[in-house]
Specification:
The complex is a heterotrimer of chains A (about 400), B (about 130) and C (about 350). Chain B has about 130 residues and is an alpha+beta fold. Chain B contains four helices and five strands. Chain B is elongated, with a radius of gyration of 22 Å. The two termini of chain C are about 35 Å apart. With about 350 residues, chain C is mainly alpha-helical. Classes of the chains: A mainly alpha (about 400), B alpha+beta (about 130), C mainly alpha (about 350).
Chain lengths: ~400, ~130, ~350
């Protein structure tokens, strides 16, 4: 079909803001030559909800549950990152046991997020059987999360200075049953996803992100690891209980013979992180120290401590999609002066421009989905102007950033 | 089938009971409200929802007798769903605004706020009588 | 030549076959959805769901996009549905003779059926190009490529069978009545020897794989690809027009399955069990429906739940390369069989 490409007229193909290939609103504009993509552009910002604005009108104890709502899938990652910033600013010592509870719930979140993604990826490939299968087996992790925290999606378990619910030893058999379930299932999942010829045909050598590009574009999480970058916040700068545990970044060459950085490798990395999470939860259950899970049970005292806190801090967490970063600045008021959320998709989205280049229309959905985008995590800015200009150049953005930094420095 | 492992899997699944949760009925009734009406009259039966785990966070319950009006719940509520009533020194909770974090339960010094197991809370009226707890 | 009675018979027969095609097609869709749902561990919609869908679509407005060509846009669904029904007129339904193209003096044969099978697809292509949407245009281009891809393996299958029958000395080998053994009582399996049976099995597999492409279901639904083109060439269609395309696809599914039944599973119960003629027609017809369901299960439902969608270039490679190659192997085996049986005269 590429024959005579020079003579054929190109045409524009819009995908989005609402399209079956996209699970969240974002606008892609493709310049196409036949079935082949020539140029890519995308416009995020369609899912902006003003979460940071809401946060700056609330105190940290309220915000920690607002952060659950930043993302529907990786709620606990945002809460944890935010709680860690406030704990650093207020110099709160988190009890040892709370660290383990946080780790367990984060790993369960990773299991459900990766299996959810696997289902979405299968659906994008037109393989609905695997989509139903993946989402069916994901139920187990949601059930266990509901059993442990009381909620299925927005767990609401993190608190400034610890966690709100302890995992008691009588709950361990249920957790162990769930881990066993996933362990038994894993062989089947790997077989169905990775040995399938029709998936291999669609995903191998598709959406390739080389190691250098992954490094240059600052990708994070499974997207970066699938390109061979050995990076994982849990391994590189451990938080919660990860320092005590054996955590090593999952790389595709642990399963395949080499690293290609294609969509197939991203499937491999995400699926292999499920057994890794099972192992981490097992270690946590074995090593969990006794003690309290919250440094202070009186909420009035938590509120007062947060109000007194002055300073700034950054909290980094390895969310299922990659590094999630929160910046908070407190100035002695009950509400934070500044709160900045940088979700993992924000780092990964620029990779789209690279990996969509030269691919076919048929691969657009799976390539877009392959970085596991979460637009409502990412969209932190919406420009509302009367003259209707909503495109900012690099110079505009630099100027605005400098101005904002100056404001923060005051 | 080594190339297409799913073939064996789907053939295995065809004989098994489907995983679908058949709540409230196996097939979509021609009219949901009509179906619910006939359930109410006892003419049809509803397939029950799956039970809730212990310490589930459902609709909030409020014991106004033990409440001291300390307003701590209002300060910790992320959704601003709790309103203070100055004349009686009690609170009013808007369930349609509530995000079910149960933080007010933890904060309440007298234990006047507790989450129940009730979760079928869909409504068309944000200010319906059963959606306001006081 | 044609008497008034004949003409009347044809008209009545056509109406019956059209009604049967639509009802059976929607039932087959319902059954296919039920099978697929259970294979995916779901309950799935009730079998009457396609009827509900069509009723709903018929109640809705047909929106014609601003930059569409209204005449082609509106006529394409009619052509698609009509041509799908016409295919059925040439196919035997159980032991019922085809309405057209029955015994000698019929109006068409398998070659005509092959051409007719492309007409609904061509109507969809025309409708897609007339929609004036980039998605529909891409879908139409893909549909054309798909059509070219699956025509060759299909032609190989048909030619191989008809050639073998003519080698066996049968008159009118391309007539479906002959192929289905209605006139001779001998299907292709009775004609060939052991080598030919192997060849026929290979050809049957090829035909089973052509079916999903012909009725554009996963893995060959590239022209409609829900996640990429959100419906492709059907993206701008709504209401009555969409309902007609839906019906056309349903009828075409029955036609494809009937074709496979006529060529490879033509047995009738009445061949083996003696019974009065009216009872035989009914029993054979029910048996035919069972065979159609079996064919749809294996060549549509099972394939569509166990594979990912092909990219358009993969589709061409697979149909032109692997399936056509497989078809030619089948053809060669059948030729060998003819040599062995000594039925060939050069």
């Amino acid at each position: 079909m590429s024959e005579g490409a020079g003579k054929k007229a190109t045409y524009n193909l819009p995908i989005g803001p609402i399209h079956p290939a996209l699970k969240e609103p974002i606008l892609f504009t493709f310049k196409m030559d036949g079935e082949v993509i020539q140029e890519v552009d995308f416009a995020p910002g369609k899912a902006h909800r003003g979460v940071e604005w809401m946060g700056m009108r609330r105190n940290p104890v309220q915000i920690v549950h607002l952060t659950d709502r930043i993302c529907g899938i990786c709620g606990v990652s945002h809460s944890l990152a935010f709680a860690r910033t406030v704990e650093q600013i207020a110099e709160i010592e988190v009890p040892e046991r709370a660290h383990y509870v946080r780790t367990i719930i984060q790993e369960f979140e990773r299991i459900q997020s990766h299996i959810l993604w696997a289902g979405v990826a299968a659906h994008e490939l037109g393989f609905d059987t695997l989509f139903y299968l993946a989402w069916r087996v994901r139920e187990e992790s949601l059930d266990v999360i509901e059993y442990l925290t009381g909620n299925r999606v927005n767990y609401g378990i993190i608190q400034i200075g610890g966690v709100r619910r302890d995992f008691t030893s009588d709950q361990f058999p249920r957790i162990e049953a769930s881990l066993k379930y996933y362990e038994d299932l894993l062989g089947k999942l790997l077989n169905l996803f990775l040995d399938d010829k029709s998936i291999g045909l669609r995903c191998r050598q598709c959406g390739v992100l080389s190691r250098d590009d992954a490094l240059r574009l600052c990708t994070v999480g499974p997207t970066a690891r699938a390109s061979g970058l050995n990076m994982d916040v849990r391994q590189d700068s451990p938080y919660a209980a990860y320092g005590d545990l054996d955590v090593r970044a999952v790389l595709p060459d642990q399963y395949l013979s080499g690293t290609n950085g294609d969509v197939y490798d991203r499937i491999v990395v995400r699926l292999l992180e499920v057994p890794q999470s099972i192992g981490i939860i097992r270690q946590c259950l074995d090593q969990m120290p006794p003690g309290e899970v919250l440094w202070e049970t009186k909420y009035a005292k938590i509120l007062a401590t947060c109000k007194k806190a002055v300073g700034e801090a950054v909290g980094r967490v390895e969310a299922p999609r990659g590094e999630c970063l929160h910046y908070v600045r407190m100035d002695g008021n009950s509400n934070p002066h500044t709160w900045k959320v940088k979700a993992s998709t924000y780092s990964n989205q620029m990779a789209w421009l690279k990996i969509l280049q030269g691919e076919q229309i048929a691969d657009i959905p799976i390539i877009i989905a392959s970085i596991d985008p979460c637009m409502s995590c990412t969209d932190r800015v919406a420009i509302v102007r009367e003259d209707g200009t909503d495109v900012l150049t690099k110079e505009d953005l630099t100027r605005l950033s400098v101005e904002k930094t100056r404001r923060l420095m005051q | 089938m080594k190339f297409l492992p799913t073939v064996a899997e789907v053939l295995r699944q065809i004989t098994k009971t489907p995983a679908t949760n058949i709540f409230p009925a196996k097939y979509l009734p021609p009219s949901i409200t009509g179906f619910l009406r006939s359930v109410g009259e006892g003419k049809a039966s509803i397939h029950p929802p799956i039970g809730t785990p212990p310490k589930f966070r459902g609709k909030i319950t409020y014991d106004r007798d033990t409440c001291t009006g300390c307003k701590l719940c209002i300060r910790v509520c992320p959704a601003n769903a709790i309103e203070f009533l100055p004349e009686t020194k009690r609170v009013r909770i808007y369930v349609t605004q509530c995000v079910f974090c149960s933080q007010c339960n933890d904060a309440c010094p007298t234990g006047s706020l507790v989450m129940s197991d009730e979760f079928l809370l869909a409504t068309e009226d944000r200010y319906a009588e059963e959606m306001i707890v006081e | 030549m044609i008497t008034l009675i004949d003409l009347l018979m044809i008209v009545v027969g056509t109406i019956f076959v059209a009604g049967f095609g639509i009802v059976a097609g929607l039932c087959i869709f319902g059954i296919d959805r039920k099978f697929a749902a259970h294979m995916q561990a779901r309950i799935g919609p009730p079998i009457r769901q396609p009827f509900i869908d069509v009723m709903k679509l018929l109640c809705k407005d047909s929106v014609i996009p601003e930059n569409a060509v209204p005449s082609i846009f509106n006529w394409a669904p009619v052509v698609a549905l009509a041509s799908s029904i016409v295919i059925l007129l040439y196919l035997p339904l159980g032991s019922i003779m085809p309405v057209l193209g029955g015994l000698s003096g019929g109006y068409g044969d398998l070659i005509l059926v092959m051409y007719l099978l492309t007409v609904p697809a061509l109507a969809m292509v025309a409708g897609g190009f007339a929609s004036g949407s980039p998605y529909a245009t891409v879908g139409s281009q893909r549909e054309m490529v798909t059509m070219m891809a699956y025509e060759f393996p299909l032609a190989v299958v048909i030619i191989a069978i008809a050639w073998r029958l003519s080698m066996a000395g049968m008159a009118e080998p391309f007539s479906l009545a002959t192929i289905a053994g209605l006139t001779t009582g001998v299907p292709i399996w009775g004609v060939v020897g052991p080598v030919g049976i192997l060849g026929c099995i290979i050809l049957m597999v090829v035909l089973a794989w052509v079916t999903p492409a012909e009725v554009s279901r996963v893995p060959c639904d590239t022209p409609e690809a829900e996640t990429e083109l959100c419906g492709g060439l059907l993206v701008e269609y709504s209401g009555r027009n969409l309902a007609m395309f839906y019906l056309a696809q349903a009828v075409k599914t029955v036609a494809m399955a009937s074709l496979a039944v006529a060529i490879f599973l033509p047995w009738n119960i009445s061949w083996y069990v003696a019974m009065p003629a009216p009872a035989a027609v009914v029993v054979d017809f029910i048996f035919y429906l069972v065979k159609v369901v079996v064919v749809v299960f294996f060549s549509v439902s099972l394939i569509r739940v166990s594979m990912a969608r092909f990219r358009i270039n993969h589709l061409v490679t697979i149909y032109w390369g692997y399936l056509a190659g497989l078809g030619i192997i089948g053809l060669l085996l059948i030729m060998l069989d003819a040599f062995i049986k000594g039925g060939i005269v050069i």
